[in-house]
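re: the backbone from monday

yeah here it is again, tokenized this time
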């Protein structure tokens, strides 16, 4: 069964969803009650970009600080900051963007 979010992203990229008979490798047709993606009109580049953006949003927003990481206070900025964890998250996020050619 396909992840619902993947289905949503595929539709956003131009695919449409349907259910029905699917041809199997042995030539038989089997009724597929689960919705399948018909991707003939899907923009694959956009679909890939949407998946990468989704992954980046997870990296950028769901990054609780693990136990044991150091938090320091900056007098200049009058705020607390994480000395390593946030830097690591931002570094990995930037590496993903660069690897997939995502522009801000």
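seq for it, each position gets an aa:
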């Amino acid at each position: 069964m396909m992840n619902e979010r993947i289905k949503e992203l595929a539709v956003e990229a131009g695919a449409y969803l349907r259910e029905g008979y699917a041809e199997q490798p042995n030539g038989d047709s089997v009724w597929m009650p689960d919705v399948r993606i018909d991707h003939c009109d899907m923009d694959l580049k956009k679909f890939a970009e949407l998946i990468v953006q989704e992954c980046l949003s997870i990296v950028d927003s769901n990054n609780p600080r693990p136990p044991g990481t150091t938090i320091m206070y900056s007098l200049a900025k009058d705020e607390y900051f994480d000395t390593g964890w946030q830097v690591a998250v931002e570094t990995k996020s930037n590496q993903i963007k660069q690897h997939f050619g995502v522009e801000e």
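The two ends are 33 Å apart (CA to CA). The longest helix spans residues 44-61.
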